[in-house]
Write the structure tokens for this entry.
Amino acid sequence: MNRYLTDKLSHWVVLLCAFVSLLILALIAIFTFQQGFPAFREIGIVQFLTGTVWRPGQGEFGILTMILGSIYVTLGALVLSTPLGVGCAILLAEVAPHQVRGILRPMVELLVGIPSIVYGLVGMMFIVPLVREIGGTGFSILAAVIVLTAMVLPTVITISEDSIRSVPQKYKDGALSLGATRWQTIWHVTLPAARSGIITAVVLGMGRAIGETMAMIMVIGNAIRMPTSPLDPARTLTGNIAVEIMYAAGIHENALFATGVVLFVLIIALNSIAFVTRQREQEAE
Amino acid sequence: MGIKMQTSSLSFYYGEKQALANVSLKFREQEITALIGPSGCGKSTFLRTLNRMNDTIPHTRLEGEVLLDNQNIYAPDADVVAVRKKVGMVFQQPNPFPKSVFNNVAFGPRMSGNNQGVSLDEVVEGSLRAAALWDEVKDSLHKSGLVLSGGQQQRLCIARVLAIEPEVILMDEPCSALDPIATLKIEELMQELKKKYTIIIVTHNMQQAARVSQWTGFFLMGELVEYGITRDIFTNPQNKKTEGYITGRFG
Amino acid sequence: MRLSPKTTQKLAWVAIWGSGVITIFILLFIVGYVFANGVSSLSWDFLFMQPAGGLSGEGGISTVIVCTIYLVLLTIAIVTPLGVGAAIYLSEYASDNWITRLARYGVETLAGVPSIIFGLFGFALFVTVLHFNFSILSGSLTLACLLLPTMICVTEESIKIVPRAQREASLALGATKWQTIRHVVLPAALPGIITGIILCVGRAVGETACLYVTLGGSAAMPTSLLSGGRTLSLHLYYLAMDTRAFDKAMATGVILILIIIIINTLTNWLSQRYMARVRGT
């Protein structure tokens, strides 16, 4: 009866693994919200979200400038990386000859793997001085956008490519046999069929952009003020947490957790977009 | 011949949808029973209740009894693993594991761990011989089972079942993915196997049912419409529906 | 004016090839820039000497390499059994109800949550409350939390690919559920799981934010799990931001890129071997 015992035992072991894992993950969410909540209560949720002054020493906590900082850099990276990424994905999946793909694909994989801190370093050493030529100190939203674009691009490419590649050949054959050009087939058949995958790619890219921390600290200047031009420095939500958590205490620490809550909510909102798109796609099938 | 296995008032549900209604059927030892009927009639579902493979599908429910040697295999204290060892199954698509031929056949004995006395080599050779595959694979026992042809793969799956020394063998349209020559080989093999085992085969191919089986059951819309000696069913069906199905497909 | 389909296609081709060229350019530029500025500082001394620490940018990266290895090994040792076990439970045992769906949604969401939030959690729980202080232990636990959702998702994906027919064949032969998982499902899913582990190693090596707030940043040789330390990525950050030793930072960057190249080559090699095995050759 030995193997029956093993069977039972294994069931309990994997159940335990699942329980512990989910507990940890739930704990992270609960903990962040629970620690952030006092800040919302004491500062006031509206004051916290719309305040433009962040002076922990004087008990003033407003993160609007950082919310805007995060949104600007993310949107900037999105606008640049989506067309580039999807274009490159089409190239890899549909257009490039086999040999070209054999060279290009490992390059993109390498880009995915390079630590973000290396992007930050190159940004700081090369992009920042370049932006300084245009004006300002160089530590700016523009520099951050350029660095983030390079960082997000491989994510967008790989996931888009996978979804374009998974469009069944018969769809494409149908269009081609009706006399459509290859580009018409891609534009009118392949891309619409791969839409939900491409949206997922863009959403994941945005998630990565919003979440990037250290590379942003290196190039964006971290100044707490209302950004008015791409050449202005700014601070991101993530950067705010990383820079201040080590010496924060009391309400200041709560305020940083509350910053984490805002990030959390942004990510959940983003994921929901991807989730709903996928759900709709499945229903349509 | 004695009754090896029987069902009484067996009903089966997928969620709310009833797939089998009140099926009572007897299977005789060392004979082949064929189950025929149009697709979706419940014959495969029925076959899978006989070794409790339907247990793996969520949201299903079963009423009635399935008796193997007069023991209800759905009794609360029944051991599903032991049931499946006694009632082996060959599937519609050949599904060898991505392992070597040897390891495919040795899988069952290894899992149950009770191959005292006989070495694994002997079990494997004996099973492959019994499945009429030995001569074709004896030089490539350690090659992947996936490189065999479709017909060879299916005989490998049969050998795999024989290695666990079952008493009943269920076959779920075992030839539907095979070409005529491979089909013929499997049918010849079935005649060999029937000397030792009770065989129940689901088939959509009525010529095959007529060729290989002694008993035939005709299913329609989840009900057993008619059951009897194969020759009688095909020459002199009692039920109008059976006649319609058989003549429609035969003539 | 309407363009003819042929002209539109030509324009589209230019745009598509253009984006490919830009992507290659970005890669070559980043890698080239780091190598051009970093290779001159690379030497055996650099690899095998301790960093001087403090605000001095002198010395090598020996302690940093050791710390990175400790941290990665410990993290993988924590995250692999937990993640694989949880994935097995979710895909093989859990019934499909709203709790399972919520769990999956939660895992997927957590996989996208910024690492600094995990850092915040690790800092508050492991460093402060549990008094592990800034240490390899705190860092590993935090990193394990960060990588857990990824590990679960990747394992689940590779378990899902195993055909149902394989499981049924095994069950029908009288194998128990666990035997089926252990001898049929896991071997078939193994290449995917290993790829997942390698992916986690890559992310652990590249991660900075959540280690910045849990690992402490000591440049000394770690003596126990409760020693502080710095990984290669973190070291690069300190070199660039605190000590302003840019040449050493670039050299560290070269090492990081080399590690990623090795990891990618390994992954591709594994998946090719796996494909060969599936085809049965």
The interface with chain B takes residues 2-4 of chain A (CB under 8 Å). The beta strands of chain A are 54-55, 60-61. The two ends of chain A are 47 Å apart (CA to CA).
